[in-house]
Amino acid sequence: MSDAARLARMIASARRIAVFTGAGISTESGIPDFRSPGGVWSRMKPIWFQDFVAREESRREAWRRTFSGAAGWTGAAPNAGHHAVARLWEAGRLLAVITQNVDGLHQASGVPVGDVIELHGAAGYAKCLTCELRHELADLRGPFLEEGEIPACRACGGLVKTATISFGQPMPQEAMEQAQAAALACDLFLVLGSSLVVYPAAGVPTLAKRNGARLIIVNREPTDQDALADLVVAGEIGPVMQAAVPTHGGAASATRD
Ligand code: NAD
Description:
The protein has 257 residues and is α/β, with parallel strands linked by helices. It has 10 helices and 9 strands. Strand 2, helix 6 and strand 3 form a beta-alpha-beta unit.
């Protein structure tokens, strides 16, 4: 049996699926990943959280990247991979999407906000680092671009940062707990487009596997956890998942209860 056929069969026979996605699921939407050639890290260095907090120049650079679209992770549309995951939700067999992505494309593809666990936050809005008040990028853009004003909280004056989790920044505890709960409750853990090198997020698939779930990895390059997986499918996520979860009939034909 081919890997594609095994993938379709394992998805079809699973009842409680946790999907774990990384930057690789969004490259077909035109958003570069971090580690592939041409990826974000080949073009610019990450700004560590401690630098953002300590240095005005780092904050200015972070906001320049946000408003110039340099990182490129907002404004794209979901692709066939996201839509295949959304069909699993429609079929009532998706426990949750655990994502390292900050692009909001699972929600845009129709998975309800409450079923998307964002381990690394979201790039589509900003938050005060002191009081956590939400700020919309649209309100911050003009003052930054026209007057060079680095965003500060309108309520408490604290530092405002996009709601992403930067290197060196503490993980959101609630999201980590939700991810671990999904890993322990699923019978299939499906990794789509992650190199599985960024911890603690990359520890979640291991947790699911050790708890008895089947582990599948779909990625175009080998990952750090291939040896642990029940099935590794080497390929492009969009076409692979479109075939495994077809639009009509097949694995996702049941309706959500
Ligand atoms: P990564 O860049 O380390 O790994 C992505 C993996 O996906 C690579 O192994 C690559 O070979 C594979 N890949 C790329 N396109 C693919 C495709 N079309 N089909 C199959 N495989 C494909 O990314 P990561 O594991 O998510 O970890 C790095 C961090 O990147 C995450 O923490 C995340 O926050 C951040 N990030 C997010 C976005 C986004 O929101 N879209 C974009 C870039 C980086």
